[in-house]
Amino acid sequence: MDPSVDTSFLPDRERELETIKKKEELVKEWRELQDKEKNDLINISYCYWDGSAHRKDMKVKKGDTISQFITRALEVLRKEFSELKTAGSDNVMFIKEDLIIPHFYTFLDFVATRMMGKTGPLWIFDAIGEIRLRQDAALDAGEPHPVKLVLRSWYEKNKHIYPASRWEAFVPKKEYRRTCDDLSDI
Asked: Domain residues of the chain, as ranges?
């Protein structure tokens, strides 16, 4: 027997148990970090869009779904807009950067994966967000565009008119670009 021979590739019950224990600890730590991240509060600028903007802000958790956000926003907006009295979250569309976002996404989905819209990341809530990813003077206007909350019925009546004519369904893997001929569609 040569004690200098490498046997690390051979099965070893103790090493396997240690590896399993380490994996379980890492999974537990990751889940705790995810729960903490989901409970972080963020400020979302939004507006009810009926042809003109009515801007508001709301603090939500990163783990909240778009549907939960719409439900809370409707509670605030119903006080001002009678047409929203009977509207539920299913009757309201969530538009960000000319993209129609499905209700099942959470804000954390966009923040963690840095999902891109037509003008850059859809949401940035960290210090890096202060530095533009693309050097474009047109984008450096300061405040981000607010989310538009739109009644589906309004969209169906006005989808052929700007700005609704530019809105499209969000596709996660699609690479959105801003092109020079964007304005020719108007």
From this structure: 41-178
Residue 175: both structure tokens together? 């690479």
First-to-last CA distance in the chain? 82
Calculate ∠ Cα 29-30-31, nearest 5°: 90
Amino acid at 128: I
Residue 184 in tokens: 């020719």
Query: Does residue 148 sit in helix, strand or coil?
Result: strand
Strand 92-96: give its sheet, edge to edge. 53-61, 41-49, 147-151, 92-96, 99-101, 168-169
Fold of 41-178: Ubiquitin-like (UB roll) (3.10.20)
How much of the chain, in percent, has pLDDT values that exceed 70?
Answer: 81
- CA atoms within 13 A of residue 110's CA, in its CB half-sphere: 27
* Pairing assessment for the beta strands 147-151 and 99-101 based on DSSP bridges: unpaired
Closest to 69 (Cα-Cα) out of 34, 41, 103: 103
Question: Tens digit of pLDDT for each residue in 112-128?
Answer: 777 777 776 676 655 44
Cross-strand pairs, 92 = 151
pTM equals 0.70
